[in-house]
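Listing S7. Sequence submitted for prediction.
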Amino acid sequence: MPLTLRTIACLNDNYAYLLHDEESGATACIDVPEIEPLERALSDEGWSLTEIWVTHHHDDHIQGVDALRASTSAKVVGAKADAHRLPKLDDAVSDGDIFNFAGHDVQVMDVSGHTIGHIAFYVPAANAAFTADSLMTMGCGRLFEGDARTMWVSLQKLASLPSETLICSGHEYTEANIRFAMSVDSDNPALLKRAEHVAALRAKGAFTVPSLLSEELETNPFLRATNANLAAKLGMAGADPADVFAEIRGLKDRF
């Protein structure tokens, strides 16, 4: 029986996720920006929360964890390397670990860059990777703690997942990310088509998240640092892709 995924809008532009296994009744919540929308969604679905998975320590991803744990008795899973600045963890996990959720494997990936100790959760049975502020729809997180090479390595890990993987990222930043992408990659026909699609979605108030990894590989400039045409447009023909990525990230920071 397939896993059910729900995307929950929180705060001004955050997303959290609920992942539910119908057979066992187990439900995981990935990040807790605030509890009210999550409690409402759980009630609407008739689901009981059993687990909370935390990606990184920023308040807009964890500030509701303790309250949601108190109201549900869900266990909390997060990065061992970041445990000193996360809510109390019941299970501390590290890069390469695989844990069980209702009979399904969950693979832990260190995707440091936005922060050091940021992790992603990849669930093959759901074709979903919960990436928060590492790989984002049409973007990637700012480098608050890691450097560009660290983030590039993290993005390459995520880029190697199956192309049908849903990238479940943490914010509704897609329109702004596309405006930047157009400034560096405007002759990419896939990007032009996607810009039109995103504009139509947002005009209806629809989410642009999650997105397919295949779309990100075609249109997200932060994953296209290996593209010779894009590198040449930046005056970096033949450069190390990590350096091209660093240039793209710097341009976005100043955009």
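Caption to Listing S7: primary sequence and predicted structure tokens for the chain studied. The chain has two domains: 3-169, 174-253. The radius of gyration is 18 Å.
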